[in-house]
Amino acid sequence: MLGSTHGTLTTDSRGARVLACGERPGPAVHGRPAHADDLDVSGRPLYTAVPDLDRFFRPESVAVIGASDAEGRPNTGVTRQLAAWAQRVGARLHPVHPTRETVFGTPCCPSVAALPEQVDLAVLLVADPLPVIEELAEAKARFAVVFASGFAETGAEGAAAQERLTAAVRRARSGMRLLGPNTNLNAFERFRDDLDGPAIALVTQSGHQGRPVFALQDLGIRLSHWAPTGNEADLETADFLSYFAERPEVGAIACYLEGLKDGRAFLLAADRAARRGVPVVAVKVGRTETGARTAATHTGKLTGADEVVDAAMRQYGVIRVDGLDELQDTAALLARARPPRADGVAVYAISGGTGAHVADLATAAGLRLPRLSPAKQAELHQWIPEYLNVANPVDNGGHPVGDRRGRKIIDALLADPEVSVLICPVTGPFPPLSDRLVRDLVDAAETTDKLVCVVWGSPVGTEPAYREVLLGSSRVATFRTVGNCLTAVRAYLDHHRFVRDYHSPFDRAPRTPSPSFRKARLLMRPGQQLSEHAAKQLLRAYGIRVPREQLVTSAAAAVRAAGLVGYPVVMKASGARIAHKTELGLVKVGLTSASQVRDAYRELTDIARYEGVPLDGVLVCQMVERGVEMVVGVTHDELFGPTVTAGLGGVLVEVLRDVAVRVPPFGEEQARDMLAELRGRALLDGVRGRPPADLDALVEVVLRVQRMALELGDELAELDINPLMVLPQGQGAVALDALVVCR
Asked: Which residues of 249-268 are buried (b: 16+ CB within 10 A; e: fewer)?
């Protein structure tokens, strides 16, 4: 079960990371791209460098600015912990204080300028860090840590002070990097060095929230690093994700996130982890307005629209969980378990009720419980009474676990090629049977590379079978609740399926504008909403089909246009300030004669005049009736920039809000996955005798809209194609209406 599946880290003679074969170089400084071809068509980076944080976590020299050994002072305890940490990592310690000659017996420097050497890491225990940061930049310190609070988390004045810190770091010609402000000592904790196997690396934006994962060491699970990022004035979550993804000892990355500094940087880091097959498990605050507001006052970061954050994480394989207990269990399992050979799960219990209950929950969680073959069932019935069910879940009746039959049953289940995960729920201790059962499970796990999970349901947790046997095994994944077990197993199977099929969307992102872009730019009107007619011209520029239509300014012209378009027709008022035509009565459908067209023209212009809505004319449109109404659009997210949405359209978009979101760039596979997430997806397959819709045409529209979002970038504030009529298979899709707002 144990063993890292990730590649080794290659370095040159100076210790700098060497790019793997085929890997692109990233930006040279602070995430700025080094080459023009490392930018997408909208000018955003496609690659970033992995920051060299070795000297942060393993410095050779450490300065403590504001060091103290005076009893009762807050800085004294911090200095003591830093001194102990420096000793553990083999670093030279340099206390800095203007009035002290020694601190804890170590000679003290009166100022940064008096430091005897260029330090790798400087920790600032001062209320006003800005002057010290500037001094450290002059002294060419490699890293600085600022504990002080009162910055962006406090409002505009604090945000301005934080920006001054950031600017000082950017000016540092030595390339100094800053952790904080508003951070803590978590990076300098005592990590156990007696544990083996792949480790968990931890990133948190609240130190206290990382404690449960840190405590996993007490259960024998290795932790390699802890990065408490604080307000992220410079170094951010993405930097540590990229660094940890390259570390050969890291089996999984666990994160507690309140917000993100830079959505694009986070996705590039998640992409790096996905390429390397390193699982990232995250708790992300902000599912509710209250959570988002509280997070902003804690670390001063943007939480982002939760549905967009959720989609972006899923798009790049980041496993999102809700509770810290789920973060613990899921990260621990993913760090230590080897890739599965199949996706089948077997549930093995000593009680039919327990087996049925867990199987029900597992199926609801999306796990596949394959029915065991007749041959396998016959084999199991050698040791289990014939009247008990062994098809999966497997009920042994209890007694077989007390003798040699128990181990034979476990071995037989693990030998089944359809079974990749064995889950055994033990609802409570019942020695000696439960003792024998867990011992057999642990021994069997030593002989297989398949995942063996045990749920120990006792609320006590002091039983020797649990504390000594289960927790003493590095091969068995032990859980305290069925829910956490199923969440972790689902994440484990999903992660390996994801990385097996993963193709980085950044590799295929467009770098140069298409011919459509030049046409589209001429149609954009900065700061204005386009009329429906102009919006459709924009769609047509990108090859998105619109109905036959003509814009007219008289009743006579409307009649001529109807003859050219072909009856029946739809007539709509067209103007840049019209957002909801139907509610205002500015749409007439099913017109079949010249007289109806003339009357409709007069009525539409009268309503517009009464409502005070200026028109650029009236659209006479081809009427398209048969199909599935969908919506495809573009909006801007404060974290990730342009996002593409697709869902059920027409009035259903407001009633059901059945939409899926993706963050560009993405490929055809992600576009199809996007549509598969819709609750109403079955409508596209054809229901109640209706033919299947042209799914390929819908996917093509989504991809063309994505191209618009990438190329027009910030110029396109909003795009809403609703409805997009998806016709029967092979007949395409037609944009019947469109709203475009220019920035």
From this structure: ebbbbbbbbbbbbbbbbbbb
Amino acid type, 312: A
| Nearest Cα to Cα of residue 718 among 741, 738, 701, 735 | 741
Place of tokens 């709509």: 572
Nearest to 244 by CA among 294, 281, 298: 281
* Rounded Cα distance, 273 and 242, in Å: 7
Question: pLDDT tens digits for 522-571?
Answer: 999 999 999 999 999 999 999 999 999 999 999 999 999 999 999 999 99
Is there a contact between 159 and 151 (Cβ–Cβ < 8 Å)?
yes
pLDDT on residue 304: 59
Residue 226 phi/psi, 5° resolution? Answer: -140, 120
Tens digit of each residue's pLDDT (9 = 90 or more) over 648-665: 988 777 777 899 999 999
3-state SS string for 193-239: CCCCCCEEEEEECCHHHHHHHHHHHHHCCCEEEEEECCCCCCCCHHH
Whose tokens are 């036959």? That residue is: 548
Entry field: residues in the chain: 743
ω into residue 568 within 30 of 0, thus cis?
yes
DSSP-derived 3-state class of residue 276: helix
Q: How far apart are CA 708 and CA 690, in angstroms?
A: 32
- 403 torsion bin: left (phi>0), alpha (psi -120 to 50), beta (else): beta
Token pair for 611: 């409502």
